[in-house]
Amino acid sequence: MRLSWKLGRFAGIDVFVHPTFLIVLLPGVFGGRDAIPLILALFGCVLLHEFGHALMARRFGIGTVDITLYPIGGVARLMRIPRAPGAEFLIAIAGPCVNFAIVAILAVLGFFSMDGEGLSLDQGSFLGQLATLNFGLGIFNLIPAFPMDGGRVLRAALSIGLGRTRATTIAARLGRILAVVFGVMAVFVTQSFLHLILAIFIFLASRNEELQVLGEERRRTFGETDQSIWYAPPGYRWVDRGGGLWQLSPVSTARGAQGSNRWM
Fold it and tell me: Among residues 50, 209, 210, 216, which one is catalytic?
């Protein structure tokens, strides 16, 4: 049973909000009602950020399962992560580019505002605050470490020379290092519980991403359904001849029905 609440379906993608999202509205509920419109507008921008990923992925033939909003941001669940570095780079960078585009649009709106004062990023106006938050969101997501978009950009760049597995390991480890630093700062500097939770999330997500990719690479090498050099055609299996030599051998009797497509 899904715990999230469905907001609707946009551009063919289901959008959900997790119940914990209500946490971000608590400051407004308990006195700071002026903050609620800004919070909702910011998460509208977060949703656009995720649609940036989803729609760019669609251009490469990759569908999106759904998009869910959480207190710490949004998550677009793609049906698969592209292996081509170029495709991964464009899909990853699309999200932050949406935030920077929003900043540009807000600047134009401020410039042509009725009072003619224009928009300043350090201004206390609604547009100014929203522009500042979007700029910060775009920069934050470009941190070169998993699970941030910058981590995927880094992996795409490293994959060209190091391969996907090694590139993933480097980006994931960098993500854990930065998560520890961020967590220490959350405890001793900012003293923010939300920042600490975010640091823990980054640490766990980076490790999970690394394990997932390593598992995918093993399946591509040794799996029974992947068309790799270790794929055994129906009716055949790999046999170890010793000395590092493997040979395809016809399957016989009932044993072959169990492992005809499996490399042991």
Answer: 50
